[in-house]
Amino acid sequence: MYIEELKEILVDKIKGLGYNIKEDEIRNSIEIPGKLGDVSISIAFKLAKILRKNPNEIANEIKDKINFELFSNIKVENGYINIEFNKSKFSSMVLNEILNKKESYIKMDLGRNKKVIIEYPSVNPTKPWHIGHLRNALLGDSISNIYNACSYVVEREDYIDDLGLQVAETIWGYKNLGKEPKDKKFDQFLGEQYVKVSELIEKDEKVKDEINQILIKMEKEDTEEAKLRKEITEKCLKAQYETAFAYKIYHDLLIWESSIVRANFLDKAISLLKEKNAVEAPKDGPYANCLVVDLRKMSIEEELGNIEEKYKVLVRSNGVATYAAKDFAFHLWKFGLLDSNFKYKVFMIQPNGKELYTTSIDGIEMPFGSVDRVINIIDIRQKHEQAVVKHLFELIGREDIIDNYIHLGYEVVKIGNQQISGRKGTWLGEKSNYTADDLLKETENKAMELIDKNIEDRERIARAVALAAIKFEYLRIEPKKEISFDWSRALNFNENSGPYLLYTYARGLHIIEKTNKREFDEPNIEDLEYQLIKMLFLSRDALLNAFKETNPAIIAKYALDLATIFNTFYEKYRVINSDKEGFRASIVEAFLYILKSMLDLLGIEVIQTL
User: Fold this and answer.
1) Integer angstrom CA distances of residue 549 from 143, 375, 544, 601
2) What is the pLDDT of residue 235?
3) What is the pLDDT of residue 182?
4) Contact, 279 vs 358, CB < 8 A?
5) How many Å apart are CA 603 and CA 138, to the nearest integer?
6) Pick from 5, 37, 11, 9: which is nearest to 534 by CA?
7) Chain-centre distance of CA 440, in angstroms?
8) Between 530 and 20, residue with greater pLDDT
9) What percent of the chain has pLDDT over 90?
10) For residue 418, what pLDDT band results from cuts at 50, 70 and 90?
11) What are phi and psi of 253, to 5 degrees?
12) What global pTM score does this model have?
């Protein structure tokens, strides 16, 4: 039995009393765990207002009707119904179910095979991933895992802007600033050149003019600039994916902006907006000859609060579309609302054996896109743009899409008080660059120093520890909070870190390897045993809340709380050769299944020895 099943039993019992109240109101009044018991129910307060009766009187009426074999004690206290479980029955039920279902215990049938696109990290193909891009990638990977566990068909997509100004600047640098060195990753080389080009643009108007010419030429097929654009961006992307694979991050599909332009999605999107009278074309004033949307026709202020801007330009007076217009066209494709599609071919085979597909003019048709939900992992500074794109669906009569268009905005990763910027080159350090590659290398070196030199396969373990340290340190922070990476905290084996969770898992595994007995009768439960079993019972609730809030930090917190209780249990109770060996070994085995499930959601792989 899961929390949601127990709630349904209680809802049915209370609803059966004939009260005129909605099921959702009953369900939302049930707290598990409760403040003064294993379950607390506060519905009597709502009913008291409706029935004009004392809450205690109503609570006592309900109390007499909700007896259940799992409950040992039901009390009414100040209008609340507080329930205690029968500890033996509850513990046996939870352990047997986890041991039977193993790692699938936490999985939920929320999606019922609906499709979701999760877009991340969408780094421009002009530079390496810096530590800010890494936050995007790790969030996207974890959210994808969470949706997989909730029975969604997940399409992991990476959007590549190969037509923007940054690419034109990169091409100019590639042609004018020297040859590629043999001892440097291509994305690192391009990124360093990109910073130099940005500095030159500020000083030399001629450079800016030459770049603008490249920008025009590279968007036309069969020009030298277009061929160079394709060559450079694909080579950079492959270098970026070396970084992705080092972090065990994989995708299903690459979508290039040039493919969106070729497919003529933008014109179709603009035609649809005009057909639905969603846009205006002022003849005079500040928006003369632009195509604009009146934000006052949207419910956008409910999301963003009071906004000064009344109009949003979709197409400028010179005919150039803005980010919002192009992104809306892209999202029409994502939701299957265009009568056009891309063609696809294999870009590469990833280390996990999966094919990574790419949009391509010479590909074949495949069933990508046309999803039920979209999640965009995009910097929180894009909140306004994302809200505009989302609410454009409102103006074409598709309000249903708004709840299924999720922008997961995340805050920056800082070095001291310095924000990372690709253009300004703040990812370049004096001793070490602030790239995802250098972060992993440095963390791995620090992990190596902490691992016993006599341990077999020390380098592989150091890499696993480093990945756990980085991923957990990033994901334990709420996305809307800034991150300042701290190695002393990230590599702490004693508390609050990824390595701490790996060490705790290895501890439990060590016990299981030395025990054979798992059978037990309904035991006499001690308090700490019961607390650990209750925490295991709450695992699906952690997944459900992380899903609802699109927030892996909920999983990270649950995993820490679970590990902390387990380590206290480990220190207090003997398992091997104790008079409760079968029961306690079952607790340990169930703990291992649940902790591994949580680490899987965070993209952290367990290791056998630490």
Assistant:
1) 10, 12, 9, 15
2) 97
3) 86
4) no
5) 8
6) 37
7) 20
8) 530
9) 78
10) low
11) -150, 140
12) 0.93
Residue 295, pLDDT score: 94
Q: Which residue reads 């990033």 in tokens?
A: 474
What phi and psi values does residue 319 have, to the nearest 5 degrees?
90, 0
Per mean pLDDT, which range of 184-188, 425-429, 435-439 is the poorest?
425-429
In this structure, the number of other CB atoms found within 10 A of the CB of residue 46 comes to 18
3-state helix, strand, coil in the chain (%, to 5): 50, 15, 35
Q: How far is CA 477 from CA 403, 474, 496, in A?
A: 25, 6, 12
First to last CA, the chain: 34
- Confidence (pLDDT) at 517: 74
pLDDT at 451: 86
Residue owning tokens 């306690």: 584
The topology (CATH level 3) of 449-601 is Isoleucyl-tRNA Synthetase; Domain 1 (1.10.730)
Q: What's the mean pLDDT in 43-63?
A: 93
> Is pLDDT of 449 > 80?
yes
Q: What angle do CA 536, 537, 539 make, to 5 degrees?
A: 70
- DSSP per-residue letters across 139-161: HHHHHHHHHHHTT-EEEEEEEE-
**Using one digit for the tens of pLDDT, what is the confidence trace for 365-383?**
999 999 999 999 999 999 9
Q: How far apart are CA 588 and CA 584, in angstroms?
A: 6
**Total residue count of the chain as it appears in this document:** 610
Of 609 and 533, the one with more pLDDT: 533
Rounding to the nearest 10 degrees, give the CA dihedral for residues 175, 178, 180, 184: -130
CATH number for the domain running over 3-85: 3.30.1360.70
Whole-number Å distance between alpha carbons of 588 and 585:
5
593: pLDDT strictly greater than 60: yes
Structure tokens at 168: 């034109």
Residues 6+ apart with CB under 8 A from 153: 111, 113, 114, 115, 116
SS3 sequence of 292-355? EEEHHHCCCHHHHCCCCCCEEEEECCCCCECHHHHHHHHHHHHCCCCCCCCCEEEEEECCCCCE
pLDDT at 404: 97
3-state secondary structure of 255: strand
Write the secondary structure of 18-83 as one string of H (helix), E (strand) and C (coil): CCCCCHHHHHHCEECCECCECEEECHHHHHHHHHCCCHHHHHHHHHCCCCCCCEEEEEEECCEEEE
Question: What is the pLDDT averaged over residues 400-424?
Answer: 82
- Contact of 265 with 325, CB cutoff 8 Å: no
Q: Where are the domains of the chain?
A: 3-85, 264-326, 449-601
